[in-house]
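WARN no homologs supplied; continuing
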Amino acid sequence: MKPIVIVASTPLEMGRLLEASAATPIDGKPPLKAFRGRIADRETILAVTGIGKANAAAALAALCERFAPGLVLNVGCGGAFHGSGLSVGDLAIAASESFADEGVLTPSGWHGLELIGIPVCEAHGERLFNAIPLPAAPAAEALRLARAAGLNALLGPFLTVSTCSGTSRRGEELLRRYPGICENMEGAALAQVALLYEVPLLEVRGISNLVEDRNLARWDLKLAVSRAQELLLDYLNHLPTVCQPTA
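OK structure emitted
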């Protein structure tokens, strides 16, 4: 049975999972911090990638090459857009990811990569510019489990950015480009790598803040990452047949 790979950008977003898996460090090249453990009697590789798209993509590519996982899980926090229906402490599950700031700034405004005509990647005969699809089955099961646990959770498109949005105006600008329920800094890069390696990816993020004028007093990082990790533990304990890694 192929291992499951779990990635997060920071130790805070991975701590509960490391504890639950009784993971031990894996020898490897820095800066990737990887661990091996077991969750629900399945071999699990857990890695703290570092922040941002470059770190995330490099880490997941290395993990796919070394471990050939049957499933990738991305856990972390995110900022919810106004009007999404999400509040601090809620859960967001990705139906798709978009590179929300890769594009061209012209006198008429911002345009996506279609304007250049160069896709960010090509997979299964399709040219993908900014938006990367994610498999439906893992996301639907995670949503079911979250709601069964009495949590407010939404499934929808995510936006990946290089600069966290610290103003309401910036959030409104991003939503004019692409629909989205939350933003993050790694997900689209992970989705692209997983797609190229033909590994299903599930991305779950706890909402730590709203995309508004920055006010740390309104944030709750610990609650957000705790709920996201607990959902992934529940998911792994109920791993559906359709998503089971195969030998």
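The chain has six helices and 14 strands.
OK
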